[in-house]
């Protein structure tokens, strides 16, 4: 499955593709499948097998388990941050702390 142009590769003509493993890789040679080729039973079966493997790899049940333990406060980089704010009429900045 074609993901897009690989800007991080040293080869200027590289692309990201998603193989059955589910781990994106770079490829310098890609070829699209034509509309006529998509209609053949052999290619339809190959695409179904590929889609099933990718769906199994990225099951929503696996993702929802990870989201059950998510606490936004843990990942809020601004929470408890101390800021120095300039205030009119005060030479030294006033300090403030970000709270929820």
Comma- or semicolon-separated keywords:
about 100 residues, alpha+beta, 3-stranded antiparallel sheet, two-stranded antiparallel ribbon, 3 helices, elongated
Order of helices and strands: EEEHHHEE
Shape: elongated
Main β-sheet, spatial strand arrangement: 1-2-3
**Content of β-strand:** 15-25%
> Total strand count, please?
5
The class by helix and strand makeup works out as alpha+beta
Mean pLDDT: 79
How many distinct helices? 3
Q: What does the radius of gyration come to?
A: 25 Å
The separation of the N and C termini measures 43 Å
Largest sheet composition: 3 strands, antiparallel
Percent of residues in helical segments? 25-40%
Low-confidence stretches: none
Task: Describe the protein.
Strand 4 and strand 5 form a beta hairpin. The mean pLDDT is 79. The longest helix has 17 residues, at 41-57. A three-stranded antiparallel sheet has the order 1-2-3, with no helix packed on it. It is elongated, with a radius of gyration of 25 Å. With 100 residues, the protein is of the alpha+beta class. It has helices spanning 35-38, 41-57, 60-68; strands at residues 2-5, 15-17, 25-27, 82-85, 94-97. 0% of the residues are buried. It has three helices and five strands; from the N terminus they run βββαααββ.
Give the secondary structure arrangement, pairings included.
Blueprint: E1 2-5, E2 15-17, E3 25-27, H1 35-38, H2 41-57, H3 60-68, E4 82-85, E5 94-97
Antiparallel strand pairs: 1-2, 2-3, 4-5
What does this entry show, briefly?
By secondary structure, the protein is α+β, with helices and mostly antiparallel strands. It has helices spanning 35-38, 41-57, 60-68, and strands at residues 2-5, 15-17, 25-27, 82-85, 94-97.
